[in-house]
Amino acid sequence: MPGKIGLFYASTTGNTESVAQQIENLAAEQVQLHDIAAQGVAAMQEYDALIIGIPTWDFGELQEDWDEYWQVFCGIDFSGKKVALFGLGDQLGYGEWFLDAMGAVNDQVLAAGGEVLVPWPVEGYDFEASKALTADGSHFVGLALDEDCQRSETEARLQQWVPQVLAALLD
What we know:
With about 170 residues, this protein is α/β, with parallel strands linked by helices. The protein has one domain (about 5-170): Rossmann fold (3-Layer(aba) Sandwich), CATH 3.40.50. The protein has helices at about 15-25, 35-40, 65-75, 100-110, 150-170, and strands at about 5-10, 30-35, 50-55, 60, 80-90, 115, 120, 140, 145. The strands form two sheets. Strands 1, 2, 3, 4, 5, 6 and 9 form a seven-stranded mixed β-sheet that branches. The chain has a two-stranded antiparallel sheet with strand order 7-8. Helix 4 (about 100-110) links the parallel strand 5 (about 80-90) and strand 6 (about 115). It is globular. The two termini are about 15 Å apart.
């Protein structure tokens, strides 16, 4: 859909859904929300610009709806698509795998020809390891959120990140 950004997410506890809705509100009519559990991922092909949200579960695993649609996701051609990512994780309880699922999505988008934009600085986080880091380790590949340990930071981070995403994806 030219002119619109497809925002695809899946949520088990409601945290990722809440963040997706906050992004939709901040993006003011620019975003079309898609819950993967209800709609799958095939409609990603219809957009030139995407925001993709994924929580990391347990020891660096994909959330169950993402896991269910992973093979379909891996079949999508992201050539010419601009993508921004956001991930949710628990940096204290699962610090060895913080946002690993966002790293998996990033790797697949890049492997399928997409361009991942708007990395997020690692300052302000306390984790042991993450597969969602840029090559130099100074940034996450997308917005990092922790609703378990840093819920109070989410709104400010979104207010900073969403305008950057809109500028990058609609440019």
